[in-house]
Amino acid sequence: QVQLVESGGGSVQAGGSLRLSCAPARYTYSRYSMGWFRQAPGKEREGVAAICGGGAVTKYADSVKGRFTISRDNAKNTMYLQLNSLKPEDTAMYYCAAAHGPGCARLRPSDYNDWGQGTQVTVTS
CA–CA distance from 52 to each of 45, 79, 86, 105, 121 (Å)? Predict the structure, then answer.
């Protein structure tokens, strides 16, 4: 059963922007730490950005700092990732995830329990 659903992916030229959204299929995730991850062909899944349940604490991969912004609207039970100044190397399948364990703002995929199906982001040169 799908637990999270991503949307907003697409194909854009370098320098463009996208806004990804993540919403639960069945559960309320307002108190969960959540994150965005990406996986390019031939590469392992990597953490992109993470956010604690309250939304005040965030963490970003070095490669996206200053370009991507993670946020959440707990009233709408939705998480977002704003991707600006996109580069071809950002091309990947992007996944959102929720963690059940302690701690928050982590970028390790193994810390997360519930996952979406992914949304493709393609950045052309």
Answer: 20, 11, 25, 5, 24
Residue 71 and residue 85 in contact, taking contact as beta carbons nearer than 8 Å: no
- Distance, in Å, from the CA atom of 60 to the CA atom of 48, rounded to the nearest integer, reads 6
User: Residue 100, exposed/middle/buried by CB under 10 A (0-12, 13-18, 19+)?
Assistant: exposed
> pLDDT tens digit string along 56-93?
999 999 999 999 999 999 889 999 999 999 999 999 99
Taking alpha carbons only, the member of 96, 66, 98, 62 closest to residue 81 is: 96
The answer to whether 13 and 67 are in contact (CB under 8 A) is no
Whole-angstrom distance, CA of residue 90 vs CA of residue 83 = 9
